[in-house]
Amino acid sequence: MMLTMRYLLFLCLALFIVDNAKGQPATNDTARVHQLIESAREKQQQGLAEAAERDFRQAGELAEQLNFDRGLQLYAGYYCVFLYQQVRYEEALHMGQLQLEVSERLDDKPRMGYAYNNISLQYQAQGKLRQAAEFLMKALEISSEIESLTPRDRSDRRKYYNNLSSLLLDMDDLEKGKEYALQALEIAEELQDTLAMGRSLVNVLVAEAMADDLNAAELHGLQLLAIGQSLNDIQTELTAYINLSDIYRRQKRYPLALETYQKALGLVQKAPPGNEVYILSGISSVYKDMAAYGQANAYFDRALALAEMELTKPKLIELYLSGAEIKERMRAYQEALLLRKQYEQLNDSLRNQETHNTIQELEVKYQTSEKEKALAERDLKISEQRSELERMNKWIVVAVALLVLLTILLLSGRLINQQKRKTAASEQANRLLEAQLRGEETERARTARELHDGVASILSAAKLRIHARNGEDAAAQALVGELIETAVQEIRNISHNLAPEIVLNEGFAQAVQEFCRRVNHPGLQLECYVVGELPKLDKNTELILYRIIQEAVTNTMKHAEATESIVQLVGEGTRLSITIEDNGKGFDLQQLKHTGIGLHNLSSRMQLLRGSHEIHSAPRKGTSIYIEIDALHTTSQPVGKLETQDFV
């Protein structure tokens, strides 16, 4: 029976860029949306389904109230995955459609592809294979339009290929199903993503087992098990056990098959819903092949009780057929006839020739589009080569006009020299800026040490001398002591702000949070949020970013007359986003661009870091500074989890 061999794992790797919502809601409100989503995902991983759903719903309601499209897009994608894992396909389909609607509104092509993929999975689970194929092909079309693929783009394409493989295997198209599974596996190996390799391996071994290539299927099953155990990924390990058990059954190694199913049962409580039915139906098939029909019937009835709620439509086909055979052996002919009718009805609706032809036609169109794209690129290269030959011929003819040619060469040389001088000037400016920043940090560190070790020590000594003078006015001594203590504390604060050790020793995020804590006071409520895992940056970059935040907050305190301010650090992969906002009096950005030294310093430092920045402000409307930097420009980052069927 192919039920357990056709078992596919659905998980989600969805990455979204945290951005300002439409209508510019308060940043602390948008941060709350992200916090709720992160909390829901953590509870989902811990198996706390009810608590996770509460947080998901709160995040969605808050995003809708704020008209926060980016947050709504993030919520819809993650909640879609949650609902799918809870076997609530219709609700998950609604979330996928919401994800598509928001992505279209934002004109966000990559995330439109994610939504198409997620919708396809819901239709496949409901047995609507034609609609599933149509939406999956739309995701592949978006992927095909990308000319220069990033690792993330290649990872997305791997998911789409893997899901297309699953769809073709549901239609019993073994050759095409294995072909796309191998393409997905090849991309995972190029990305050196071990978990993605495992999830692509599932469809490879399924195709091999369906084609009775059991030795190859067993080797891939053991490889999948090793991946799951090495990464401590329960779902991958469970999938490996279920598939290996069915391979052993096909090899007639029945005791080993039952033993392996028992190992799977030991893990089922730690995995998402929908796994137990595969194990029960698999054990039933083993006993059926052993002619132990009583035990087979008992396990089948337990599996059938779960199947209607937990199994996708394509997986119900084999369960009905196996059950009909068992009931016949048990002489329960009426039940056998009913199961046989259910099998035939579902098989005809899912695997009819029209649906199969439609899926094949869509797949052929996609392949044709890919081939036409390759041909167009080849023709373009040929055209460029011909144009180059024509240009060479023209230069040969024009060579007789030597004076004109020499003039052109002289002009070209002058332009090249000018460009070189501009490049050299830009590099020199960067070097000068680096030297200036190093000098500033050195001077800050020296001043901080002198303040801390010199002036602060003298004031502390003066305080001790005053307290040591007995018999004088005690109230006056106390007042002077308090003033000295205040001065000492103020000097220490200044030395902490000047010294770079807090960034170098405690880390960037901790340094920013500590700085915000120090400057927070009743007149200015300053909040600091850290969302996600911040990428690793070199210490020079962290120090420059810390000084930028420090200067921006200091300007807010001095000039903005603000009562509330926020500093938000958001990590997404290799990208770091920084938002600094206040509700102060703002300023005319166009006017300040010509006179503001601070804005010029910010632009110079961001150019040095190869980052980008935006400043939004207007009189009486506060100020917002948005900074983004890619850690790949300063440090190297490893690549690396995908699944048998993948959400995005």
TrEMBL record:
It holds the Pfam family TPR_12. Its main location: membrane. Keywords: Cell membrane, Coiled coil, Kinase, Membrane, Signal, TPR repeat, Transferase, Transmembrane, Transmembrane helix, Two-component regulatory system. Residues 333-386, 416-450 form a coiled coil. Residues 446-633 form the Histidine kinase domain. It is found in: Cell membrane. TPR repeats lie at residues 238-271. InterPro entries: HATPase_C_sf (IPR036890), HATPase_dom (IPR003594), His_kinase_dom (IPR005467), Sensor_HK_TwoCompSys (IPR050482), Sig_transdc_His_kin_sub3_dim/P (IPR011712), TPR-like_helical_dom_sf (IPR011990), TPR_rpt (IPR019734). The chain crosses the membrane at residues 395-416. Residues 1-23 form the signal peptide. SMART domains: HATPase_c (SM00387), TPR (SM00028). It is a multi-pass membrane protein. CDD domains: HATPase_UhpB-NarQ-NarX-like (cd16917). This is Histidine kinase domain-containing protein. It comes from Parapedobacter defluvii.
